[in-house]
Design brief:
By secondary structure, the protein is an alpha/beta fold. The protein has 4 domains: 222 residues, Rossmann fold; 90 residues, Rossmann fold, CATH 3.40.50.1100; 75 residues, 3-Layer(aba) Sandwich (Biosynthetic Threonine Deaminase, domain 3); 88 residues, Biosynthetic Threonine Deaminase, Domain 3 (Biosynthetic Threonine Deaminase, domain 3), CATH 3.40.1020.10. 40% of the residues lie in helices and 21% in strands. The chain has a 6-stranded mixed beta sheet with strand order 1-2-10-7-8-9, with helices on both faces. A 4-stranded parallel beta sheet has the order 5-4-3-6, sandwiched between helices. It is globular.
Length: 504
């Protein structure tokens, strides 16, 4: 298997349109981690993503008759741009089916390269199904975004460049994983020539299709896929890609959204470039690996796979990066409702910077403060801060890992209402698009009175809502059935301590 892929990689025609991207050092991150971190800058390709390699290689290998039929693909964006660019170069008509949640910057770019864009579904797999219909209806030739040997070989040229550009110590390559085309191509080439180098996949925790397949030793379909890292939002690893990965990928690491946001900041600090969420996965994986293994003086390369990110999504990245870097703690602190309490609390905080402070009168006995405090993962970790406050007599609840607190409560503190009774609280996520909020409210209907509502959209691929409903105790068992019929992901937050403290 490996020899076949290596031959395909060596004969790939990617350099008709792709460039050999550099490997850049990440000095700040390297110093912090005590290991050498290098970045393979695939964000510097003409379409700002590695996907141009596999798309062009596959298209270039089609027969003249196949090209004359026109081509179609399904893509969350980067493969779409690569195929559109390649098709224009070769004079082939291309139709691209993209999920409706695809960042606008990617949709505009695909259209700019001359391809026809069809928006369908909320995730890649729905777009894929629709693209298959177009093959039957219009006789188009399908160009798979990852699950094709020629596409895999095109992506594998990255490994060929890495081993040529960096011939010294190299302990591991950290690769973002969506459908698996990139990591399969890299693993095939690296394990054939340098089996001593570890190939490590990195996936978001909420889109870890390769990790699930490796654990089951067979391809599985994820029931839900997170959309923050839209470039890797795939529910099932490819068949061809998994055959390579199951034998030649050493392990798969998963990371959180906060850890991805922190990694985007790390890459910016070292390169002054902004990568997309999928593009930072390699760096996020290195950080997690180093923390787990407590290693030093190793040499790691992360594939910086793309830079196609909506500018307004950076608000979310900036908001969560400090938490992902463990440099901010979000705390609920109870203080006596009497003069001097605020001063005493600030003295307990000491010289630490307060990033956020929210308060509203609760009752005559005590006050609940929602506060953000700068911390340092090594010099001043948040558990030390919590312990310090508790020793000085302040009841503290650490909300740093509480999604409801991070997404909503911090913007709603002070909303107690004694007149509201029989309240249940649910948090929702749904694909963001024009009219999404109206559609959500329409599906929710008017069966129960809405007693609280908070909606945030700050450039993410999905809208986030927290809803309070007044539901009599006798009817509460009917709520999940109604919410299931809406079809959106939801969580019961009625017993969430952040809600109980500030809003109940």
């Amino acid at each position: 298997m490996l020899e076949t892929y290596v031959k395909k990689i060596l004969s790939s025609r990617v350099y008709d349109v792709a460039v050999e991207t550099p490997i850049h050092a990440a000095p700040f991150l390297s110093e912090r981690l005590g290991n050498t971190v290098l970045l393979k800058r695939e964000d510097l390709q003409p379409v700002f993503s590695f996907k141009i390699r596999g798309a062009y290689n596959k298209l270039a290998l089609l027969s003249d008759e196949q090209r004359a039929c026109g081509v179609v693909t399904a893509s969350a964006g980067n493969h779409a741009q690569g195929l559109a660019y390649a098709a224009r170069h070769l004079g082939v008509k291309a139709t691209i089916v993209m999920p409706c949640t695809t960042p606008e910057i990617k949709v505009r770019a695909v259209r700019a390269w001359g391809a026809k864009v069809v928006l369908h579904g909320d995730a890649f797999d729905e777009a894929l199904t629709f693209s298959q219909k177009l093959i039957k209806e219009k006789g188009l030739v399908y160009i798979h975004p990852f699950d094709d040997p020629d596409t895999i070989a095109g992506q594998g040229t990255i490994a060929m460049e890495i081993l040529r550009q960096h011939q010294g110590q190299l302990d591991a390559i950290f690769v973002p994983v969506g459908g698996g085309g990139l990591i399969a191509g890299i693993a095939a080439y690296v394990k054939y020539l340098r089996p001593d180098i570890r190939v490590i996949g990195v996936e978001p925790e909420d889109a870890a299709c390769l990790k699930a397949a490796m654990a089951a030793d067979e391809r599985v379909v994820l029931s839900q896929v997170g959309l923050f890292a839209d470039g890797v939002a795939v529910a099932q690893i490819g068949q061809h890609t998994f055959e390579v990965c199951r034998h030649y990928v050493d392990e798969v690491i998963t990371v959180t959204t906060d850890e991805m946001c922190a990694a985007i900041k790390d890459i910016y600090d070292d390169t002054r470039s902004i990568c997309e969420p999928a593009g930072c996965l390699g760096v996020a994986g290195i950080k997690k690996y180093v923390e787990r293994e407590n290693c030093s003086e190793k040499v790691f390369i992360a594939i910086d796979s793309g830079a196609n990110v909506n500018f307004d999504r950076l608000r979310h990245v900036a908001e969560r990066a400090e938490i992902g870097e463990k440099r901010e703690a979000l705390l609920a602190v109870t203080i006596p409702e009497k003069p001097g309490s605020f001063k005493a609390f600030c003295q307990a905080i000491g010289k630490r910077s307060i990033t956020e402070f929210n308060y509203r009168f609760h009752d005559n006995a005590e006050a609940h403060i929602f506060v953000g405090v700068q911390t340092h993962p090594d010099l001043d970790p948040r558990d030390v801060l919590v312990e310090t406050l508790q020793k000085q007599g302040f009841p503290v609840l650490d909300l740093t890992d509480n999604e409801l607190a991070k997404l909503h409560i911090r913007h709603m503190v002070g909303g107690h209402c004694e007149q509201v009774t029989d309240e249940v609280v649910y948090r929702f996520e749904f694909p963001e698009r024009p009219g999404a909020l109206f559609n959500f409210l329409n599906k929710l209907g008017a069966r129960w009175n809405i007693s609280m509502f908070h909606y945030r959209n700050h450039g993410a691929a999905y809208g986030r809502v927290v809803v309070g409903l007044q539901v009599a105790e006798a009817e509460r068992h009917k709520v999940p059935e109604t919410l299931d019929s809406i079809g959106y992901m939801y969580w019961d937050e009625t017993d969430n301590p952040a809600y109980r403290l500030y809003l109940a």
